[in-house]
Design goal:
This protein is an alpha+beta fold. The chain has one domain: Nucleoside Triphosphate Pyrophosphohydrolase (Alpha-Beta Complex). It has five helices and nine strands; from the N terminus they run E-E-H-E-E-E-E-H-E-E-E-H-H-H. Strands 3, 4, 5, 6, 7, 8 and 9 form a seven-stranded mixed sheet that branches. Strand 3 and strand 4 form a beta hairpin. The longest helix has 13 residues. The model has no long low-confidence stretch (mean pLDDT 92).
Length: 169
């Protein structure tokens, strides 16, 4: 399996207004074209956080633990539509209610710039990770904090968790 480098993403300004479009390959090539993504932090009622394991074939951060759901917003798709689609694609579930939107911010790495729309939800039913992932599991907050800075998690997840820790917990 591999990412489709020809998939089209919207190019946006920092408010999310669409300016143009570019391929996944162009967006992840170091061009720094700002493209929108959604992140969902999924907790159970015990306060544990679900993380997905990125498969080794991913073009960005292979093999690392990451936000329960993270995905690109397709051209012509709203934030909410992308969230519903990605939750179903990655975790094999339909959420019983709309997740709470916490914030949006710009994340930049050496390869890309993303406009990240951050959400949170509590969910206790079974999760069925797709072939897009290398599995997933719930982590206690203590386990998570114990592993921050040890290259277990994606840098994006770590910075986002630390940035929004008060809102998430």
């Amino acid at each position: 399996m591999r990412d489709n480098n020809q998939e089209m993403f919207p190019i946006v300004d920092e408010d999310g207004n669409i300016l143009s479009a570019a391929t996944r390959g162009e967006c992840h090539s170091g061009s720094k074209l700002l493209h929108p993504v959604i992140h969902l932090h999924l907790f159970n009622t015990k306060g544990e956080i679900y993380l997905q394991k990125r498969p080794d074939w991913k073009d960005i951060q292979p093999g690392k633990w990451d936000t329960a759901v993270g995905g690109h917003i397709d051209l012509g798709e709203s934030v909410e539509q992308a969230l519903v689609r990605e939750v179903n694609e990655e975790l094999g579930i339909s959420l019983p209610h709309t997740p709470q939107r916490l914030a949006h911010y710009v994340f930049e790495s050496d390869r890309e710039r993303e406009l990240v729309f951050v959400h949170k939800v509590v969910y206790d039913a079974p999760i069925h990770p797709s072939e897009e992932l290398d599995g997933g599991r719930f982590w206690t907050i203590a386990e998570l904090k114990e592993n921050i800075g040890k290259e277990v998690f994606t840098p994006n997840f770590e910075s986002e968790f630390l940035r929004f820790e008060k809102e998430l917990l």
